[in-house]
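Colleagues,

For the teaching module next term, I've prepared a clean inverse folding example: a structure given as tokens, and then the sequence designed for it. I'd like students to try predicting residues themselves before seeing the answer, so please don't circulate the second half yet.
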């Protein structure tokens, strides 16, 4: 005897795939909405409407904590560009990413030395704290923080900057493929939206450190560079050193 499907059985089998599709659609709409809220929050930061930015982040239902921590970092950068270093520090200390926190502290130290405040003692405290934070990072991230702090030391303490260069070369020699690129490349994912950004890049590279050491410590720096194992890195470093010889530029901020 053949079994005939009742109306309710047929309807139930039709409803199952519809419900599945409906859930998928809702998920896509939620992800899309979260992405839009995140992008809108970044725009609000550009417009210096920080309260609106945080209100938009609060609407995100997935990856909200990651988005909120990054937003604090982005606003901290804006505070620094607008000469508000201590507002930036407050936000940096709430960030759960040690590498971003170290970067903001390095930028604050750079600001204190460059922006006619000459608060070197306080700058040293920030640089030392940034290096302590680096102990929790992987080796290549530690190297980026070390080099970044060295570039700031090179603005006012050539002895310490030379020590940092020596230490950085020692660490870099452990990586045969290291050619001098030490920036930290990060990708933030918020509901399927990937946002890439880098820190410890322009103005905080080992070549920046070498160029700042060149006018006063040319021969000592050259001796250090001769210990570099990677040939391409050694060549690039020596070229940077030779190019900088005799060039005594006034220090400029990373934000200029």
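(Answer key — instructors only)
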């Amino acid at each position: 005897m053949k079994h005939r499907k009742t109306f309710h059985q047929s309807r139930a089998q039709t409803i199952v795939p519809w419900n599945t599709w409906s859930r998928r659609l809702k998920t896509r709409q939620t992800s899309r909405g979260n992405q839009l809220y995140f992008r809108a929050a970044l725009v609000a930061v550009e417009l210096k409407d920080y309260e609106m930015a945080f209100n938009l982040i609060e609407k995100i239902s997935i990856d909200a904590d990651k988005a909120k921590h990054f937003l604090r970092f982005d606003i901290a950068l804006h505070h620094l560009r607008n000469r508000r270093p201590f507002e930036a520090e407050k936000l940096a200390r709430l960030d759960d990413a040690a590498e971003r926190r170290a970067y903001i502290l390095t930028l604050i130290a750079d600001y204190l030395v460059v922006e006619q405040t000459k608060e070197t003692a306080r700058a040293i405290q920030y640089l030392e704290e940034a290096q302590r934070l680096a102990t929790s990072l992987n080796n290549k991230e530690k190297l980026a923080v070390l080099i970044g702090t060295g570039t700031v030391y090179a603005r006012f303490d050539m002895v310490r900057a030379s020590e940092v260069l020596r230490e950085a070369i020692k660490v870099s020699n452990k990586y045969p493929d290291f050619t001098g690129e030490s920036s930290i490349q990060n990708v933030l994912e918020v509901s399927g939206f990937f946002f890439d950004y880098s820190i410890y890049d322009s103005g905080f590279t080992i070549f920046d450190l070498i160029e700042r050491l060149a006018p006063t410590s040319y021969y000592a720096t050259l001796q250090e560079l001769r210990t570099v194992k990677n040939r391409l890195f050694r060549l690039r470093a020596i070229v940077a050193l030779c190019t900088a010889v005799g060039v005594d530029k006034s220090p400029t901020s990373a934000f200029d």
